[in-house]
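Sample A.
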Amino acid sequence: MGGPLMGFTLPWLDVPVVKITNCLLAPSASEMGEAEEEKGCIRCSACADACPADLLPQQLYWFSKGQQHDKATTHNLADCIECGACAWVCPSNIPLVQYFRQEKAEIAEIRLEEKRAAEAKARFEARQARLERDKAARLERHKQSAVQPAAKDSAAINAALARVREKQQDAAQPIVVQAGAKPDNSEAIAAREARKAQARARKNELAESASEPSAGAGLDPRKAAVEAAIARAKARKAEQQQAEVTTAAPEAEAVDPRKAAVEAAIARAKARKAEQQQAEAATAAPEAEAVDPRKAAVEAAIARAKARKAEQQQAEAATAAPEAEAVDPRKAAVAAAIARAKARKAEQQQAEAATAAPEAEAVDPRKAAVEAAIARAKARKAEQQAEVTTAAPEAEAVDPRKAAVAAAIARAKARKAEQQQAGDVESAANDDPRKAAVAEAIARVQARKASRQAVNED
């Protein structure tokens, strides 16, 4: 395929038609003869004589067979036109054109690999050069940053340099010691005092910062007022429960005196608990309200309103109880016992108020006024309780012994109240004239109560 000169023999017929298929020769066996076996070169130089390009096919054959690509290139292998004349005249039947084609292909592949290697080398060298440039730039930046400090560090560096210069100047100056003269330590003493002052200032700041939260938590008048209000609300609830127990228990349990005694004991226990809560509220409220006089006045007004409300409730209970208890002497006895317990509680509260008021009110006269209002409210409450105790004997007129016992108890209470009033007046007069006036007012109220009780007993 390809003609008599530049064509080549096909190994088989299953080949496609390509651009070099410009000529097909299909001679018979008699025309072409049988294919002969390739033999060794006899160096006859017939190929060189037949070559139209004046090449040396014999040398090119040896270079191609020995993989000597450089020598083949030097002998102008690329100029071979692959005409096949050398192979036609070769007596040894050597396919020279096939050897030359294979050598050309190998040389082309070698050159392609060399080109690729050169390109890779160029890329590698460029990368190495870029890394070197980056490294040099980084080192330059580090040097500049080391030489030029930041703006925030310049002040500290300048101060350190100034100290070094001062030390150098001091070291350069000779130290002259005068005979008999004392050393001048004024600078060292001043520096030491400055350090001590700074340490004290830091310590004071730490103490203030540590004491502010605790002081704020312990001296908050609002929290104290809230606690006092809660305590008063609990006391009111306890009083209401006591009143309900005293009114409902006799009606339901009038049949059995034992149950009445049990109910009276429970009522006394609840009353004691309410007294303790009231005492705690009374001791906590003045401490919290000592900060502001306005709050004290507000608390006094609230206390007076509450006292009036309690008086009204007690008056209603006192008017309703005799009507319900007039039917049965047992109920009257229970009511009298409850009234006596309440009278004892009122006396204890008055005694506590008389002992605690001078101590708490020694600071502010407004507190004294508040305590006086509270004392008046308690006195009114005691009067109403006394009226209840006088009403109970009227209901219990069936038994003269009980009436005599109640009268003796009332006289003893009146004497005790007079003694307490006298002691309170003397102590208040010694402490403060305002307290003395308050104590005199309380004494007058209690005297009126005692006189009323005496009239009722007679």
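Sample B, a different protein:
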Amino acid sequence: MSVEFIFRIAGMIILAVGGIFLGIYVAAQLGGSPYQYAAIFLLVGALIGLVLTPYLTVRPFLALRRRIRQAPAQQLLGAVLGLIVGLVIAALSSFPLSQLPSPFSQILPFVVAVLFGYLGIMVMTTRQQDILALIRRQFPGRAEGPKAEGNGRRPVLLDTSVIIDGRIADISRTGFIEGEMLVPRFVLNELQHIADSSDALRRNRGRRGLDMLHRLRNEAVTPLRITDMDIEGVREVDDKLVLLAKRLQCPIVTNDYNLNRVAELQGVRVLNINELANA
């Protein structure tokens, strides 16, 4: 028995009972038969509860959980901080609003709390990079992301195509790639999306890519790390990867011709897996 089915039954029962009381109330107001109105509202409430309950409970919860799992830790932290700041501002404004005449004194504090909480979340999640850059200018001692190691080795970013290709595992074992290999969370999410595809070929490619990540983590001489660093306001994975490489000033390892050309046009160094394999 699924959780959605249980919630459907619970919603049907709750709204059916509520429909009975609503039917009795309507009958008292209109002067009709309470049994007739109660039966009608019972059926309507049960039908609404059976159909709509999952869309109001289980599915929004599952969508929220999926979004939280996929969101970078930096974005989640920004959302929490934005919510806290928004609620603090709302709390400071609640006292003067409570001095207004009724019903504004009861309604406006709640509305303002919701509004500022939402604005705080939106500002921190959509402009977090600008805010972090402002903080870094005030505190220049803090480093941004992974920097070059003491011997001058910088990390490299792996894209989806090079992970699925698989030759990166053999290359990494030779020690040719000296810096840390970084896999952004959005690349990992794309691999998972491919692995969950209904198309058998895409599904196999995605699963091969996930298996390759496990192999790289366990066998590669060069360390592999999943990073939560992201580029807000950009949807395409390739665009995110190029902008992240520019921010970290590190190369991208790929065998995607289009990504190679786009990255080079934007001044990002690219390590082509085909050239590395033939080196």
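Observation for Sample B: The radius of gyration is 27 Å.
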